[in-house]
Amino acid sequence: MDITTLLGFAAMAGGVVLGASSGQLPVTFLNWHGLFIVLGGTGAAMLVNTPLKYLFDALRASLLLFGGHRPYYPRAVLEAAVDLAGRVQSRGSAAFQEADPGVAGGYLMRAAQAAVEYNDADLVEGMLQTEIDQ
Predict the structure, then answer these.
(1) Residue 88 CB coordination number (10 Å)
(2) Average of pLDDT values for 116-127?
(3) Is 70 helix (H, G, I), strand (E, B) or coil?
(4) Are 102 and 113 in contact (CB under 8 A)?
């Protein structure tokens, strides 16, 4: 989980506690029954409107967002790309098949596959630039 996310949650909770303790936040805003009605109604409306597949996809994405991804290290990506380039130079384009799918979230492997399939530098560069832009 990112530190800014934790800070945001802490600031939100601190604001509610500070507002309640100073008397500036009326007790009606801290009504547990109202909270359950709002959250329960929102959850029920979400279940009525959303297919189960999309709910699982959203849950999976939320888990990745809050701590399931590894950071990319540019040095490791560069070293893998240079290593792959050396193998391609010595053994030919068949070495592109040996690209590591774990480097840069699979980007290096997709780049290598596109290079083998299309064999046109401008086309491959355009495809990869489009992927970066998206």
Answers:
(1) 18
(2) 86
(3) coil
(4) no
CA distance readout (Å), 21 to 15, 16, 24, 25: 10, 9, 8, 8
Are 121 and 114 in contact by the 8 Å Cβ rule? The answer is: no
Tell me if 103 sits within 8 A of 80, measured CB to CB: yes
Q: What is the pLDDT of residues 90-107, one digit of tens each?
A: 888 778 888 878 777 778
For the record, the structure tokens of 33 come out as 């029954």
23-67 per-position pLDDT tens digit: 766 666 667 777 788 888 888 888 888 888 998 998 888 887 776
Q: Which residue has the tokens 């029954």?
A: 33
Q: In whole angstroms, what is the distance from residue 112 CA to residue 96 CA?
A: 5
DSSP, residue by residue, 87-116: HHHHH-GGGGGG--TTGGGGHHHHHHHHHH
